[in-house]
Amino acid sequence: MEHLIELDKKHFIHPTSSIQQQQSDGAKVVMESGDGIYLTDKNGNVFIDAMSSLWNVNVGHGREELAEAAAEQLKKLAFSSSFSTFSNEPAIRLAEKIASLAPAGLNAVFFTSGGSESNDSAIKLVRHYWKIQGKQERRKIIALKRGYHGVAAASTSVTGIPEFWGMAGHMLTDFTHADTHYENGTDKAIASLQETIEREGPETIAAFLAEPIQGAGGVLFPPEGYLKKVRELCDEYGILFIADEVITGFGRTGKMFGMEHYGVTPDLMTFAKGVTSGYIPLGGVIVSDQVHDVLKEKSMGTLFHGFTYSGHPTAAAVGLKNIEIIEREGLVENSRRMGEELLNGFRKIKKELNIVGDVRTIGLLGAVELVEDPDTNKRFAADMKVAPKVIEALHERGVICRAVTYESTDIICFSPPLVINNKEVADMTDKLHDAILSVQNELGIVRS
Ligand code: PMP
């Protein structure tokens, strides 16, 4: 083990990590295997994967069927190009399958290898859409503060968390962010969006891009009517609506796609993560018939946008098998039912402890906010590091979870595999209770 950790320090630059911390502390956990909602590290410690790793292992770990689907395709045709007029059957069948699951009117799929590539692709596609209609001035993208959309060039800029722009300088031009709905409510957030559109000039705006539910921003649900009003504003100003379903797609929220909860159909949808449950990298953009028709009619010559792995046959074969599992095992429905169980567990914890503010779930996407005063929602000072302490306490109890502490929030996020059962939900929430209680005691907060 020690040797591995030395090699890790020397040769493996971890994504989204503190390089200094890696050098001083070394890798804390080296994972070895997975089964269902559980992960086991090289020392034999077993953890509940309460985040489905990176919100993505929807069907749970250790699925032999997916390994077999990959092996079969790897042996037959591991890879071939989808550029120009070449195609392959798994990619065709997966595109058709995704179209059948997507909201009515979204039927054509451009494949990528992940969420960032999908958002960059969607942004380039909408700019192309306007350009071929003689409206090249429509280039700007409006997104939301606290939104997270990835780390490629455009997806970094469309992300509404400034730390991501600062890492290598600044964001690209032609991106701007309206206030999020979190703590603002529908009216204020819509007013901010409208003001942003007016300020930037509607005729310069290509699209609005947002997650149906902000994930990495803290699992923030849109308030009543918000997305409907966004759709109306987009229509009023002739702006396309891109929904980032990278987290919310493929059953995470108790419906196949997150937008279904709000009765709103976007013009483009980006997806990744749950499409293969992370067994192999894959993502994509689904476009509306209306957008596709414009592309079919007016996109002359070569579309100069394509990744080597767009339409990867093996990734597509795994995607198809993964969706088959989601459907066969009723995992979208299980997500809805277990999400309700999880919420009951959260509510019980809120009742029994003193530092729990809002608790929420939508399917198996949930959050517990920790606050100094649940009556007023007064937040803890950031330097108290309350949420990171709870994450640490959860880790000690065998639960891997994630905190959002951006702008002094203390939000514990949950996104467990969709295969979780009642007993496992109860075990996970018991451990959460213990972890929060231990931090509450450490802070010296006693029940009044
Ligand atoms: N969009 C959303 C909503 C995400 O949560 C993420 C990743 N967490 C991305 C895009 C980026 O996806 P990837 O990391 O696969 O590039």
Per-chain topology:
Layout: H1 2-11, H2 19-25, E1 31-35, E2 38-41, E3 46-49, H3 52-55, H4 64-77, H5 89-101, E4 106-112, H6 115-131, E5 140-144, H7 153-158, H8 163-166, E6 175-178, H9 185-200, E7 205-210, H10 226-237, E8 240-244, E9 268-271, E10 283-288, H11 289-298, H12 313-328, H13 331-352, E11 356-362, E12 365-370, H14 386-396, E13 399-400, E14 402-404, E15 411-414, H15 422-442
Parallel strand pairs: 3-13, 5-6, 5-7, 7-8, 8-9
Antiparallel strand pairs: 1-2, 2-3, 4-10, 9-10, 11-12, 12-15, 14-15
Helix pairs in contact: 4-12, 5-12, 9-10, 13-15, 14-15
The structure holds 4'-deoxy-4'-aminopyridoxal-5'-phosphate.
Structure description:
GO terms for molecular function: transaminase activity. InterPro entries: Aminotrans_3, Aminotrans_3_PPA_site, PyrdxlP-dep_Trfase, PyrdxlP-dep_Trfase_major, PyrdxlP-dep_Trfase_small. Keywords: Aminotransferase, Pyridoxal phosphate, Transferase. Belongs to the class-III pyridoxal-phosphate-dependent aminotransferase family. The radius of gyration is 22 Å and the shape is globular. It has 448 residues and is an alpha/beta fold. It has two domains: 36-59 and 330-442, Aspartate Aminotransferase, domain 1, CATH 3.90.1150; 65-328, Aspartate Aminotransferase, domain 2, CATH 3.40.640. The model has no long low-confidence stretch (mean pLDDT 97). A seven-stranded mixed beta sheet has the order 4-10-9-8-7-5-6, with helices on both faces. Strands 1-2-3-13 form a four-stranded mixed beta sheet. Strand 1 and strand 2 form a beta hairpin. The N and C termini lie far apart (47 Å). 41% of the residues lie in helices and 16% in strands. 4'-deoxy-4'-aminopyridoxal-5'-phosphate binds at residues 54, 114-116, 119, 148-150, 211, 215-216, 244, 246-247, 272. The site of 4'-deoxy-4'-aminopyridoxal-5'-phosphate has 15 residues, from helix 6.
